[in-house]
Each structure stands twice: as C-alpha cells, then as structure tokens.
Design brief:
This protein has 351 residues and is an all-beta fold. The protein contains 1 helix and 25 strands.
Length: 351
C-alpha cells in the first residue's frame, strides 16, 4: 500500500495479492505494476508509459489519476473507473482473491456515502488500451429536485458531470469479453480512432427518473404532470475520428454516442431509448340512464311498472409533451448496414 511519493526512472512493482495506491504519488518514465488486485486512489504519472496488470481487478477510484503518453490496463476480471455501487455479476471471482492480513476486499463502494463534490477518476493518455473480461465506468454525480422546485431551470454541473473520464488523444482501444458499461461517465478518443469490442455495450445515465404531480383542477378531472426528479449526466462515448465497434448488443439509454468520422460496425442489436415528459389530463364523464319496465302482468296486461336507473362512465384523456431526456447519436459519415444488422430500435426521443 502506498501513501507517500515514489519517483524513479522506472518503477516496477509486483505483488501476488493486492496493491493499493491510497493517496500516494508515483512518477517515472515508465511504471509497471502487477498484482492480483490493483486499486488506485492517488497519482500514477509517467513520461512514457503506465502498464498495469491486475489478474482479478484494476480499479481507478475517486481521486485516482493515471496519466502517461501510453497506457495499458490488462485484467482477466474487471477494469473499473470511478466510484459507485454496481449491482451486477462482476463478483464471481472474489473468492479467488487472496488479501493481505487486516484488509477486506470491497470492490465497490456505496455511492450514497461518497462526497462527489471534489473528486475525479481520470485515465488520460495519448494511446490507451484496455483488455479485460468487463469494463465499467461510473460517475455517481446526480441532482435531485424536490416538487417545489420542479419549475426551476434544471442544470447539471459541467465539472462534476465530466469527473470520471477515460480519454486518449490519438488512439483508444477497449477489448472486453463480456460487458462494457458506461454510466454517466466519459469514454473518448479526442482526435484519433476508437476501437470498441464487447459482447454487450451499455451507455446510460446512472439515474434518469421522472415523477408525476397530481392535481384536481375541477370536478371529475385529474392532471398528472411529469417532472425530472433525479438525474445523472449522460453517458458519453465519443470518437474524434473513426469508430470501429463490434458487439452482440448495444443499448444507448438517454445518453450520447458521437462519431466525428466513419463508423465501422458489426452489431447485431441496437436499441436507442429516450424518455419523454408529459402532462396528461384525464376527465371522467358520467352518464345516467333510466328505463321503465313492466314489473307485474295480469292476463297479459301490465298492471305495475318500475324504473331501473344506472350510471356509466368513460375516461377522456389528453396528453401534452413537456420535454424529454433524449438519446443522442451523432455521426458524420453514413450509417453502415452492420450497425443493427438484425434489429435497430429507436424508442422515445431521437436527437
């Protein structure tokens, strides 16, 4: 475990168990770290290259910065950038991790206990490559709106919205076997190409929740009005040049995919989803009916009559679109036939 400062021409660290850079500063021309589990919450800077090999997991948590011209992260398990709680199936390998005495393995922290006001998780280089079983990036920053403030302007802080980043200036490659999950974080190549290979790709907001207020403006009328009550930044996948993408499925949920070049895709299922906010007025119309019927007959003649009365109702609704939490798919080139070659769905709002 590292807290202080370590500077050298070359840093080479190897552990059979656990390496954790708590708040330390590691600086060299080249940095090599190999361990079963690597957690970084400090600085790892290199003039040329940072090479991390974590057999079970590599995590760059809040406060963690990995900066170099060339960065390579390799793991048989999970590569994680950011902080937050993820409910998934990435913990199957935990029993195989051997921790030093006195330490407990906690791969994810509860985001409700994290101060997100002054934290960053940054992986930034000119050339960045990541190889793993799964890749997850989570930015737990969110904004909650109480009902009394629902009509005020809704603005997310741009700094906090971009505090979890994997960025390459000229080339980014992420090759994972199972899942690529980007929740409200940024994964980008700034000027160059981006190669993304994964069985399942999910690009989404950590939270995008709308709530309805209920008003009764008049007799038999109920008005439901949607408003954004809890929102996280959009997940952003961006390529400054060409994007080469291969996956069985890609889900873009109220988030952003940008390609400032050509798209070369081999994706079976593409599902783009946005969320609409609506105002719905439901009026119930009641109709009273009556019918005179014969209640008693004698010798074929009606000698007594009665009146049956009943009420029927029907609902008439009117909807008004108030706004949306859109998904964005920006592409400078043509959409290739391999992008959603079996199914291409666009639900909700398209921008």
């Amino acid at each position: 475990m590292a807290w202080g400062s370590l500077e050298a021409k070359t840093v080479n660290i190897s552990s059979s168990d656990y390496f954790r850079n708590e708040t330390g500063h590691i600086s060299a021309e080249k940095v090599y770290i190999a361990a079963a589990v690597i957690h970084n919450y400090g600085d790892i800077f290199a003039d040329y290259g940072v090479y991390l090999s974590g057999e079970n997991e590599i995590k760059n948590g809040f406060g963690g910065k990995i900066l170099a011209k060339e960065i390579a992260l390799v793991s048989d398990g999970l590569v994680f950038n950011g902080s937050g709680w993820f409910e998934g199936d990435f913990e199957d390998y935990i029993d195989d991790i051997h921790m030093p005495d006195g330490y407990t393995y906690e791969p994810f922290l509860d985001f409700n206990n994290i101060d997100t006001s002054n934290n960053e998780s940054i992986i930034w280089g000119e050339f960045v490559e990541i190889y793993a079983s799964s890749f997850v990036a989570v930015n737990p920053y969110e904004k909650n709106i109480p009902p009394e403030d629902k009509d005020l302007p809704f603005i997310l802080d741009p700094g906090l919205s971009n505090q979890v980043v994997v960025s390459a200036d000229y080339h980014l490659k992420i090759d994972v076997e199972n899942t690529f999950l980007n929740r409200s974080a940024v994964v980008e190549s700034v000027y160059g190409s981006f190669n993304l290979n994964s069985s399942k790709i999910e690009n989404e907001r950590d939270f995008a929740i709308s709530t309805s207020t209920v008003e009764i403006p008049g007799e038999n009328t109920v008005v439901h009005t949607d408003y954004i009550s809890r929102l996280s930044p959009a997940g952003r996948i961006s390529s400054g040049s060409n994007l080469v993408i291969s996956a069985d499925s890609l889900f873009n949920n109220s988030s952003t995919i940008e390609v400032f070049g050509a798209l070369d895709a081999n994706v079976r299922l593409v599902d783009m989803v946005g969320k609409e906010l609506q105002k719905e007025s439901v009026k119930t119309i009641y109709t009273r009916h009556s019918q005179r019927i014969c209640s008693k007959r004698k010798w074929g003649a009606c000698v007594d009559r009665t009146t049956n009365r009943w009420t029927t109702s029907k609902e008439v609704s009117e909807s008004e679109k108030l706004g949306d939490i859109p998904f964005v798919m920006y592409l400078e080139g043509a959409l290739p036939p391999g992008f959603g070659y079996e199914a291409f769905k666009m639900n909700g709002v398209v921008q």
